[in-house]
Write a structure and sequence with these properties.
By secondary structure, this protein is α/β, with parallel strands linked by helices. It contains 12 helices and 8 strands.
Length: about 290
């Protein structure tokens, strides 16, 4: 039996996910593989490097730094979240990402991106946290209109959530029979069409398949939610989701708001810890 972890995106809502995964790591709960989308990839990679607390730490530390996330960064670099600063300066110098542990840990870790030329999801296995791997993670989190297209491996990439927001089907297809799925929207959420669709159509008119994927995203997302619910009912998945809409937007500069969302994730994990261990066949979490 192979056990997997599926991490939805959601920009700063991903701090809820970070709270959940930190509790799992602190209780020595291991998975055979994980897949992250957008913020799920950015924060989830810390699971393989075994660094609980890192995501909330650097987000709070740099949330008011214009190099990290700002309109200034968008205007001067083309990325709301500064590409070089967020994906290379921070992990290599300012809050060092443990590449050695990432490489040696046996857990498989995948980042989901959207190929802008095909509109289809691309799944990249990150093996060594190299510059290339970090660029794939950047591609996974590069939101349309708020980031440049990331060119790597002969592909042009943007936010993985456009084409596969909750990649449970992917994990099951590659052999993960039981998966914990962490969502960043509450139960009952129904995705609606984005109000920015006209801007997307104008900005990406050279990429009609990407525009089609953005148009289709609400249908895709809601169908994936239904699939997750079915898997949960059949015992193939265990879902952890916030009890209500998280009090945070895509961008956040308030330390206290970040911490509150992170704490909500920790609470959700602690409340379900016994059930999580039972689902994974663990007799007792290590305290």
């Amino acid at each position: 039996m192979r056990y997997g972890l599926v991490l939805e995106g959601g920009a700063m809502r991903g701090l809820f996910t970070a709270g959940v995964t930190d509790v799992l790591m602190e209780n020595s709960i291991e998975f055979d593989g994980a897949v992250g989308v957008s913020a799920g990839a950015c924060f989830g990679c810390n699971y393989k490097s075994k660094q609980p607390g890192r995501a909330i730490r650097y987000n709070q530390r740099f949330c008011k730094d214009k190099r990290y996330c700002s309109t200034w960064s968008l205007i001067t670099t083309g990325d709301m979240f500064g590409a070089e600063f967020c994906y290379h300066t921070i992990p290599e110098e300012l809050d060092v990402f443990d590449k050695e542990t990432f490489c040696s840990d046996p857990m498989e870790f995948y980042a989901v991106c959207t190929d802008v030329e095909t509109g289809k999801a691309v799944y990249h296995r990150c093996r060594n946290a190299s510059y290339s791997d970090l660029e794939w993670i950047r591609g996974s989190a590069s939101m349309p209109l708020a980031a440049r297209i990331v060119e790597i491996g002969g592909r042009k990439l943007l936010d993985g959530g456009i084409s596969d927001s909750i990649p449970l089907r992917f994990m099951e297809a590659i052999g993960y029979e039981r998966n914990i799925v962490i969502l960043t929207q509450p139960r009952g959420f129904v995705k609606q069409q984005t109000k920015s669709l006209p801007l997307v159509k104008a900005a990406y008119r050279k990429y009609p398949e990407l525009v089609r994927a953005v148009e289709n995203r609400p249908k895709m997302y809601n169908e994936e939610l239904a699939f997750v619910t079915e898997a949960e009912e059949q015992g193939r998945a265990l879902v952890i989701a916030p009890e209500e809409k998280l009090p945070i937007g895509h961008i956040e500069h308030d330390h206290n708001v970040m911490l509150e969302v992170y704490r909500l994730g920790r609470k959700a994990a602690n409340d379900r810890l016994e059930q999580i261990c039972e689902f994974l066949g663990i007799t007792k979490a290590v305290q």
